Structures are given as C-alpha cells and as structure tokens.
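Researcher: Next entry: TetR family transcriptional regulator (Lacrimispora xylanisolvens).
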Amino acid sequence: MGAKDQDDRRVRKTKRALRDGLAEIMVTKDIRNITVRELTDKVDIHRATFYAHYKDIYDLYEQMENAVAAELNDLIIQNYEQPATYFYKVIFEYILENKQLCRMLFSTNGEGSFAVRLNDLFEEKCIETWCKDWKHSEIGEELTYHVRYHVQGCLAIISKWVNSGFAYPADKLVEIISDIDRNMEYAVMKKQKK
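Model: Predicted structure:
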C-alpha cells in the first residue's frame, strides 16, 4: 500500500470521526451552540486538522447533508418504480445503516434544510411516477396537492420513527407506509379518471 493510499485512508477516518462526533452531539444540542473545540475534543482530533477539511461546523454539517441527500437521491431514482413495500424497505434499511447521521438530519437541532430537500426530492419522483403511471402529460394543481399531502405524511412517519430512537419495528412501518401509499395512489387515480 502506497503513502497516498494511507493518507487517503487517514483523511477518510478523520472525516468519519468528525461526522460521527457531530451527529452524536447534535442529537441533544442545537448546531449553533456547538463549537469546533467541543467537537474536536470529543473525537480527539486537533482543531487544525478540523480546519484543514472544513471552514466551520456549518460547513461540516452541509457536507454531511449533501452526502446523505445524494445517496438518498440515488436510492430513490433506482427504486422509486419498484413496489411500495420494496421501495420503503430500501429507504428504511439505509436509515438503519446510518442511524446516527439520520438522527442528526431529522432532528430539530439542525438547520431544517435537509427535510425540505428530501421533501422536494420525494415530491418530484412521486409526481413523475404518478404522471407516467396514469399517462398524464401535464401536472394538474390538484395532483400537486395530493402529492404534497402524501409525501409530507410519509416523511412525518419516518421523522417520528427516527426521533423516537427507532423504537417501532421498521418492517411494521414499511407495511404502514406501503398501505398508505397504495390507498393514496388508488384514491388519486380514481379521482383523476373522473
């Protein structure tokens, strides 16, 4: 293994420690009350090392948010046309694999932009899929309201689950959201045919 590989691995390990540390602190503390010193002391990394990678706590948070949003975007694009149960299972598995990070992003201690980004992403894919399924070439105002209601409800369930410390079984929530999803699609489809 070359020196560059070791450096890259060291950088990844440092960044992972900083991300994990921030996620852990943010579960109980608002981002604007977290200092670089607090974070670097927690993860036992020198402050200069932090500043070699990030401008400030907000920069670290934004990069974490961007990474999760990109990963979820890829999962959604790859799986949105799958049956609802399969789609939500993939989403819930991702969240479980990234518990601490998702707790941070879904908590009320962040900046709130993650929920908006996720909502926009889900709405876009929902509209795209429903229009395709029902062969609509244009998006009606009524459809956008149905989509907003649907997506907000699904995200509220996911957020509640994450903020409860994943207390409720994921497979049961997948069933609940899938049932809601099917009922919602049926109601919208029925309404669209009138």
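Model: Note for the record: The chain is about 80% helix and 0% strand.
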